[in-house]
Design a protein that fits this description.
The protein is an alpha/beta fold. The protein has six helices and five strands, in the order E-H-H-E-H-E-H-E-H-E-H. Helix 4 links the parallel strand 3 and strand 4.
Length: 137
């Protein structure tokens, strides 16, 4: 799975954060259960650009459970959590690895390159906090 993350070895810490969220977000739990049955996003590529931290990572996994091929980046390099990005890129046995292009504290050029790499997947759906994917289309 192609990804550009800061440090792949951080994935266990990110996984712990995502699992904590999973146990404390009943609305997303309900969506995950429903999506696993009806697969509303089967065969679709969803590109997501949001503050990449544990809550939004769990959202990515819920969408993936619904059949989506997820391509993920951060909408703000200062809010991107490298351990969470590594966990999404790694997968956890239940959830497959995702394409993740996100680096905490990256330069403007690196950030734009991450956006370009996400858009190179030619996603069917954009979830975009900040409009960087939309303006790159």
């Amino acid at each position: 799975m192609a990804s550009e993350i800061r440090n792949a070895a951080l994935w266990p810490d990110g996984e712990l954060k995502i699992e904590w969220v999973r146990h404390h977000m009943p609305l997303l739990n309900g969506l995950e259960e429903e999506f696993s049955k009806v697969l509303p996003f089967k065969g679709l590529k969803i590109a997501l650009s949001v503050h990449l931290e544990a809550k939004t990572a769990y959202l990515c996994r819920v969408l993936q459970t619904g059949g989506a091929n997820m391509i993920v980046t951060g909408s703000n390099p200062l809010s991107t959590q490298d351990d969470v990005a590594a966990a999404l890129a790694h997968g956890n046995g239940e959830s497959a690895p995702m394409h993740v292009y996100a680096l905490h504290g990256c330069t403007a050029a690196e950030y734009e390159q991450c956006i370009d790499r996400v858009l190179a997947h030619r996603p069917d759906i954009l979830i975009d906090d900040g409009g960087d994917l939309v303006s790159g289309v």
